[in-house]
Amino acid sequence: MCLQPIELEPAPGPVTQRVAQWIEAGRRVGKSVDCFDYIPSSAELLHAYLRVIPGKRYCEWGSGPGIGTGIAAMLGFQATGIEINPELAQRSLELYRQFDLSAETINASYHDVVVPTDVVFVYCWPGQAVAVRERFVSVMPPGTWLLMAEGAERFSAFLRGYEDG
Questions:
Q1: Which class for 165: exposed (0-12), middle (13-18), buried (19 or more C-beta within 10 A)?
Q2: Taking the mean position of all CA atoms in its chain, how far away is CA 56?
């Protein structure tokens, strides 16, 4: 598989008050939606990674209430989420409007939709990492980053290579 693990040091530090308010609002929405499979990753850690990862376009596979997508928008990315749960997708759009964010959420499965992007973020279900990496390599062009949360506090960074090997 043409996917290179990359050592990437997140830029730690406190988030701004606006980002903190966004994260809290998104967490409230996530808890209010009856969706047994919504599990949040560390929004603060994602923020730290997005501060150092190169790119201008961000796409979140399984974006939930849009926390990561909104953080990316606040950091200047063209931000898109893909969320299969219609209520979570709708609630994320409402949050973007409430916070005046230029972001979007597509109500679909990331297995069915491809969004041109520089960075893909996904929080994997246990045991799904290989399938997610395979999907990423099959649909994303060389030079695209994959930031994968494999637990709330454990992130891995990969770069889609230009050659097989």
A1: exposed
A2: 13
User: Where do runs of H (alpha helix) occur along 4-157?
Assistant: 17-32, 43-50, 67-74, 86-98, 129-139
Contacts of 146 by beta carbon, 8 Å cutoff, 6+ apart: 3, 119, 120, 122, 133, 136, 140, 157, 158, 159, 160
User: Has this prediction a pTM greater than 0.90?
Assistant: yes
Mean pLDDT, 10 residues at a time, the chain of 165 residues: 89 92 93 70 94 95 95 98 95 97 98 97 87 95 95 88 67
The per-residue pLDDT for 36 is 58
DSSP state of 56: S
Contacts of residue 94, Cβ cutoff 8 Å, sequence gap at least 6: none
Query: What are the tokens at 24?
Result: 């809290």
- Count the Cβ atoms, other than its own, within 10 Å of residue 137: 18
pLDDT of residue 165: 45
Q: Which candidate, 27, 45, 3, places its Cα nearest to that of 142?
A: 3
Q: Give the end-to-end CA distance of the chain in Å, rounded to a whole number.
A: 6
